[in-house]
From TrEMBL:
Upper taxonomic lineage: Eukaryota, Metazoa, Chordata, Craniata, Vertebrata
Gene Ontology molecular functions: unfolded protein binding
GO cellular component, one term: centrosome
Pfam family, one: CS
Domain of life: Eukaryota
GO aspect biological process, one term: protein folding
Subunit structure: Interacts with LIS1.
Location of the protein in the cell: Chromosome, Centromere, Kinetochore; Cytoplasm, Cytoskeleton, Microtubule organizing center, Centrosome; Cytoplasm, Cytoskeleton, Spindle pole
Main location: nucleus
Domain CS stretches: 14-104
Organism: Pelecanoides urinatrix
Protein name (record): NudC domain-containing protein 2
Length: 157
């Protein structure tokens, strides 16, 4: 069995002062570096459809309105090796044209080059889903890929 597309193609991360965030067609992932030895009881994380709040040992790390809506019941966070918090948010709108340009409405925006790479990756991920027999892991994309690339769904098979 082949690995899921995003595992083969890697991620396009957007660095932040506290860690990084990245996305797939369906999810947004947030990785927060925390002091070694952090315990789950030191973490307060609130995940809502359009809002996130994270504090560690009473210090606010991340708080604000998300760039787009998520499915509240699908959001999770984990503490890994007592030094990394990983948050997974399920996007409400899961098409390739929904490439988040920033994590929060007015913060943690991807620079133009990173944004371009994110959009390319989501477009390739969409092509992979539409064509499951093909391996797009080493593919390059150019041309019209903004907003998810061209729509071939109306073509006859």
């Amino acid at each position: 069995m082949s690995a899921p597309f995003e595992e083969r193609s890697g991620v396009v991360p957007c660095g932040t002062p506290w860690g990084r965030w990245y996305q797939t067609l369906e999810e947004v992932f947030i990785e927060v570096q925390v002091p070694p030895g952090t315990r789950a009881k030191d973490v307060r994380c609130s995940l809502q459809s359009r809002h996130i709040a994270l504090s560690v040992r009473g210090r606010e790390v991340l708080q604000g309105k998300l760039f787009d809506s998520t499915i509240t019941d699908e959001g999770t966070w984990t503490l890994e090796d007592r030094k990394l918090i990983r948050i997974a948010l399920m996007k409400s709108n899961r098409d390739a044209g929904n490439c988040w340009t920033s994590l929060l409405e007015n913060e943690y925006a991807a620079d133009p080059w990173v944004q371009d790479q994110m959009q390319r990756k989501l477009t390739l991920e969409r092509f992979q889903r539409e064509n499951p027999g093909f391996d797009f892991s080493g593919a390059e994309i150019s041309g019209n890929y903004s907003k998810g690339g061209p729509d071939f769904s109306s073509l006859e098979k």
